[in-house]
Amino acid sequence: MHRSTKWLIGLIALQASILIPLVLGHQYRLFLPYNWYKMLHIAGTVLFLGNIIVTAVWMVSAERTRSTAVLRFGAQAVNWLDVFFTAPGVILLLATGLPLASQWGGVAHTPWIQAALALFALAGLIWMGLLIPDQHRMIKLSEPVGPDEPLPPAFFRCLHRWYLWGTVATVLPLISLFLMVLKPTLW
């Protein structure tokens, strides 16, 4: 398993440790002033959404080159960028968002937070269940290929599946962002 994939699995375990108390009914409290949580929550949003959007654009650009070296580097970089930006963004979002939710009545009593968190969780499941494995497959499919040799068709099938599910996993948190900003009455 690629080293960056191992790091991602570790960071996902850390994220789960933040979410499990919520599932068990734990009420999060603010230990810092509200605005600190809000600032860190926005920073997490920028890291998370910024990276998933820019990474997609970057991989499309890498594919256009049809260069094996560029695509191999891109496949490896996507995983490392998830380690350094996406996962820390998620951790910041969860670690600050759950205490912030308590200021609005808590997750259980605030429909727009429930909907936003559900969409965010669905995006996370897609990331963990489909995107990370595809990223790992692309790395493995590109490693044995020489820099001047073409990548196998399986690499491009994997990449195009990654585009499809990556688009879904990007749209869902964007909808969450709108819910968080607009705070609509849902039910």
Into which percentage range does the β-strand content fall? Answer: under 5%
Poorly predicted ranges: none
- The count of DSSP E runs of length 2 or more, i.e. the number of strands, is 0
Distance between the termini: 45 Å
Helix proportion of residues, in percent? over 70%
The best one-word shape is elongated
Helix and strand content put the structural class at mainly alpha
Order of helices and strands: HHHHH
How many structural domains in the coordinates?
1
Number of helices: 5
Keywords:
5 helices, 187 residues, mainly alpha
Characterise this structure.
This protein has five helices and no strands. The N and C termini lie far apart (45 Å). The chain has one domain (33-182). The protein is an all-alpha fold. Helix 1 (3-23) packs parallel to helix 3, helix 2 (34-65) packs antiparallel against helix 5 (153-182) and helix 3 runs antiparallel to helix 4 (111-142). The protein is elongated and about 60 Å long. The mean pLDDT is 90.
